[in-house]
Amino acid sequence: xxxxxxxxxxxxKSAPHALLETVRHALIGRYTACSVxxxxxxxxxxxxxxxxxxxxxxxxxxxxxSPAGRAFGAQEPHVEAAAHGDPVTVHLPVSVRGDRIGILTxxxxxxxxxxAVVRELxxxxxxxxxxxxxAERDTDLYLQARRADRLTLAAEMQWxxxxxxxxxxxxxDIGAQLEPxxxxxxxxxxxxxxADRLTLxxxxxxGEGIEAALLTNLAVNALRNARRAGLSLSDQACLADxxxxxxxxxxxxxxxxxxxxxxxxxxTEIIDAGSPRMWRVRGGKAEPIExxxxxxxxxxxxxxxxxxxxxxxxxxxxxxxxxGVYDVASPTGERYxxxxxxxxxxxxxxxxxxxxxxxxxxxxxxxxxPIDADDDAMIVCMDWRGxx
Length: 388
Known about the structure:
The chain has 388 residues and is of the alpha+beta class.
């Protein structure tokens, strides 16, 4: 049995809470590693938290100013230079289908650290990522490690509802982020892919705290229920509308963009039920996409929803934002506005989608200044490549 297969087998047999201990023991034994550490990205995606001193964890590592953060941002192994004869430190992305989870840091004797070994360790980190996703069904260890602060109960509910924060397939890349990460209320995003289609939902919830989270949970699960039953996009919206209205009788409502992309052609069905907005960058030009606004979900009984048609082309970038982005005011009362958002989209055009939401939200916080956010802010970015 080769050493990579041995490490992979050990991880698959490991207890859910013992993955770090297992990979550490395996890499020390099979690769003569000097040390092995696992860092998890926090909910705000600004720091990497060590998984070795829970529940309080050890000192975090900054994403933007550290070698580990460099590997995390680029999603490529990063090898730190070392003095002659000293162990070499290799930082390896721990990701699952484009969803960035953290970093595996391995220190190796310099005589064995070559390109082939780094590639093998990269494969080990990928296997570890898959095992972490599975293990999170049975242990809180890795979810605890993500926390730089305590989540509000509403935020706990919202993060558990999400599919991930990024996703990659040959046809597209998606990246998304919610703020304030530790106190999010009702904004949400969801996606699901099949062999031929991608369904994407962007939700702007109404209200605050638990009530907003409960409303969003009801609507998102109603949409999932309808989607998994094989219903059309318009019927999915109608079923979710009925679920929200049936429970709240029109007292509250929920805004949503619902999209279904044909992976082969780029033909897209869209239902605009409220305030989330859609932008496109094509040929270097950023522009809003105007859609026919329909009633938010749950506003009235038995609302019919009509589908619009749209086409994405290879090279297009789509950005979806909630009103917590475009309605944000500066200390002088100036709204963030379309001009500022256009500028942010242009300045981030070279970043991958997984990094765009964080970059735009950082600019948004600069615009807002020292004032605390009074609404959720959500950004979803998608790059479309399509099929040859």
